[in-house]
Amino acid sequence: MCRYREMVEMVFSEPLVRPRFTEKGNHCNGQAFSIGCLSVGENRLVCVTSGNSYLGSHMVKQLLAHGYLVRVTIQNPVDYEDMRRLIEDEDMNKLENVVVAKMQDLDSLCNAFSGCHAVFHTSSFIDPHGITGYSQQTAILEADAAQNVMEACGSAENVKRCIFTSSLLASIWIAQNPNRVIDEGCWSNEEFCRDRKLWLALGKTVAEKAAWRKSKELKLKLVTICPGLLMAPSFPRAHKESSVPYLKGNYFHPISAVFPRV
């Protein structure tokens, strides 16, 4: 599901000029891992946050395949090795930069987005334990991070649009009506999520709402994507204790729980 008042389908257009890169080794220079030397194509520079996530790494590969010049953010220097395990060396060598930028640090995000024409925000937090590690405090921090991302996009002179990954969880937890159809106008009830400790749903809901408020305030184009489920190749082996019951609908509710139609 995509929330956007003017555009529903996203299309990656081919750039007019494909960038060339010099052959360089990977090295860390301060807080940025310089990987390639840009020669042309600056007008197609985009930034992907949390490139060490499964979604982020997949988006990086797709953007590179369509000829975009890609800058990636990670939150800690140690995340660089995680990203290298997800992205092949051939694609790593095509990246413009890998920048360490904390989601809670507005200045670092502003620096990371500088010169980019679009920002793909994939995730504010990567929890190795899956949904079981997501707390009420994390939900609050996610909303703050969303505001920072939008603020940084607004401060970056060239950023024209932010593509923001939310979740279907931001839409489905409303009145208990099994016949309802979920669309882009639906929002999860925040009190319902708090009462039932649905912290991931709460975090995605408040974060997306915060992003929309900021986008209107800054007059910045925003597209939010609300996927129902993101799966890595290791699913469900990695965390079957939590992921499989969650899919069946009995992680927080009985297994007979009926999920809405989308």
Write up what this structure looks like.
The chain is built from 9 helices and 9 strands. The chain has a single domain, classed as NAD(P)-binding Rossmann-like Domain (Rossmann fold, 3-Layer(aba) Sandwich). A hairpin with a 2-residue loop joins strand 2 and strand 3. Helix 4 crosses helix 5 and helix 5 packs parallel to helix 8. It is globular. Helix content is 35%, strand content 14%.
The string of secondary-structure elements, in order, is EEEEHEHHEHEHEHHHEH
- Helix-residue proportion: 25-40%
Total domain modules: 1
Strand percentage lies at: 5-15%
CATH architecture: 3-Layer(aba) Sandwich
- Low-confidence spans: pLDDT under 50, at least 5 residues? 5-42, 250-260
CATH superfamily: NAD(P)-binding Rossmann-like Domain
> Which class in CATH terms?
Alpha Beta
Brief characterization of the structure:
With 262 residues, this protein is α/β, with parallel strands linked by helices. Helices cover 35% and strands 14% of the residues.
Task: Tag the structure with descriptive keywords.
alpha/beta; Rossmann fold; 9 strands; globular
